[in-house]
Amino acid sequence: MTWRIIRLVRARNRIEHRLFSFISLTWRGQPLWNLETVINLIGATRTRTGLRVKAVLDTARYETGVKISDEQIDTQRIRRSQIHPEWNYTILPRATKP
Known about the structure:
The termini are far apart. The chain contains 3 helices and 2 strands. By secondary structure, it is mostly helical.
């Protein structure tokens, strides 16, 4: 059985990359029989510095091939981190209309 982790960012995120080694240690030697097992093992991951991983299964279906224009990207509320802002950012919810 093969599991593929889908990345949502284009650039390699160093924090995420370092986290995968701890996830691999957590599920080392465990049979990955189903998604529940994978989610539970990922969720049990802890790093030496105390970082805890939260894992949930997203069962929603998403349309593929959707093109986003530069104008649409510019309308998003994106807060970039001071450390590696090209990798670390938060997409904020849209402002609600009164």
